[in-house]
């Protein structure tokens, strides 16, 4: 008795492949906007953290006797001075101490600058969580 070998090839049909591609497309359409929101949120958190560091360094340096604002109230110039930093050269408890936030690029400085402002009453730099600094 002879047996016939069927010549069936295993595989997916065109309809099955199109259904899988459509499902992947739907999942991608849902996921891509969420990923962009995550990136935006991370950038905002980084800018806020840098602004907190800038305001903290400003207050610390002021307590040590150095005023980064040097009489002015221009946020961008003050932020630039804080990023550059300074070492206290006057004798005292803070002699030789470095005050600054180094390694911020221009985009980081600009983003962080929108979260700091000068308090109108005290003249001190403050962290503004809302990012409504209008001095920029």
Would you kindly provide a written description of the structure presented here, covering whatever features stand out?
By secondary structure, the chain is mainly α. The chain has three helices and four strands. It has helices at residues 14-64, 75-84, 106-113, and strands at 86-87, 98-99, 116-118, 125-127. The strands form two sheets. It has a two-stranded antiparallel sheet. A hairpin with a 6-residue loop joins strand 3 and strand 4. The longest helix is centred in the first third of the chain and has 51 residues, at 14-64. The N and C termini lie far apart (92 Å).
Care to give the gist of this entry?
This protein is mainly alpha-helical.
Order of helices and strands: HHEEHEE
Which percent bin holds the helix content?
40-55%
Q: Which regions have little confidence, pLDDT < 50, spanning 5+ residues? A: none
The overall strand count is 4
Q: Alpha-carbon distance between the termini? A: 92 Å
Number of helices: 3
Strand order of the largest sheet: 1-2
CA radius of gyration: 29 Å
The amount of beta strand, in percent, is: 5-15%
- Global structural class: mainly alpha
How does the overall form come out from the CA principal axes? rod-shaped
Averaging pLDDT over every residue, what do you get? 84
Largest sheet, described in full?
2 strands, antiparallel
